[in-house]
Amino acid sequence: MKLTVYLHQNKRHKLGVLAEIDKKIYFEYDKAFLESGIEVSPFKLPLKNGVIQCNDSPYENLFGVFADSLPDGWGRLLIDRELIKQGKNPNLLSPLERLKFVGCAGMGALEYEPFIRERKETQKIVLKELANNSLKILEEDVNINLEEFITLGGSSAGARPKILAQIDKTGKKIYSSNIPLKEKFKHYIIKFASSFDGIESGKIEFAYSKMAKKAGIEMSDTLLLEDKYFAIERFDREGEQKIHMHSFAGLVHSDFRYPTLDYDDLLKVTALLTKDINEVKKAFRIAVFNLLTYNRDDHAKNFSFLMDNQKRWHLTPAYDLTFSLGMNGEHSMMYMGEGRNPTTKELLLLGKKHKISDANLIIKEIKDVVKRWGFIAHECGVSKAKIDSIQKFI
Fold first, then answer.
1. What pLDDT score does 301 carry?
2. Bridge partners, residue 299, by sequence
3. Residue 154: what pLDDT?
4. 297: Cβ–Cβ under 8 A, 6 or more apart, which residues?
5. Which of 377, 375, 326, 370 is nearest to 200 (CA)?
6. How far apart are CA 163 and CA 127, in angstroms?
7. What is the pLDDT of residue 158?
8. Tens digits of per-residue pLDDT, 50-88?
9. Which residues, in sequence order, are CB contacts of 98 under 8 Å at separation 6+?
């Protein structure tokens, strides 16, 4: 089978063609795109003529830049459940067939044709109903309508139940992202708690976003909808314009499910890609924050880069910042080789290696903010019991 890939940023470019032959996946750039000089994945898919095969990817032989578009976790669950309803075996679905489900509705600016279905125009969004239904889906209730979640972009990516929506500046008017963006509205991701998150997960992530901003970390606008559901503005959209996004995991072809990378790798890749010490400092600041706030779900897909219309790369605003014990109590990414008990010592070594002259100051600034965790969390409505339980770790 074949898929045509487009980069829909500023204008719609035909990027090239993906093909699967005998369970092997090949890609060929469009000749006109080669002349553009736009490198959508400079490390693993540089611009060159001819058919290219990926041999080192952990994503079923798919180049990382395309694997970034694949649904995972929640999105994969939705698609698999729908296929089972149709009497099909989801285990037989190839990566290219899964990209057909994504079509033009994935994160970032890559689009795939042909796609499985047109997105239906759904306007009315009832968050409580969607949240309840998402839990029922996780509990394997076969009577829940999966189509509604797939239509609302829930199959795009990410591990937790979520939808893509447009929200006005008051946070009270919410519509589907499938209809044209309304005036004074912006694109958001709205998350719902999974079965293991706990009922305060939205409030906790909202409190972490407030704490991160106070700590000088760049983040998109965040909202706590109906005092329960966490929402974050999408940084891969500017109005109706799409922006190309590439995860750290996809850039270096690392399986984010395994703790194989170090923050040293992240800062090194940030420097190579952006050629800007300020971007490296942004990555360092997030590394410090994750250590001090006990966010151990800091895997390589939770860091991404954006490419602007001048072909320049920047680290995205931070996302998925929240309290997490991590797998086996360890950080998903190590700090200079230490994953279980990293300290300020490793942070200073990291800063020194990457010539961050004000590393000490950055650490102090973030420590001062984290000391106010209880006050910040209380303002966000987190219960005293949950504040105290998290305080024991941070």
1. 94
2. none
3. 63
4. 320, 322, 324, 326, 332
5. 377
6. 10
7. 64
8. 999 988 778 888 999 999 998 888 888 888 888 888 888
9. 70, 71, 76, 79
What does the alpha-carbon distance between residue 201 and residue 203 come to, in Å, rounded to a whole number?
A: 6
| Amino acid at residue number 369 | V
pLDDT band at 155 (very low <50, low <70, confident <90, very high): low
What count of Cα atoms within 13 Å lies in the side-chain half-sphere of residue 315?
A: 28
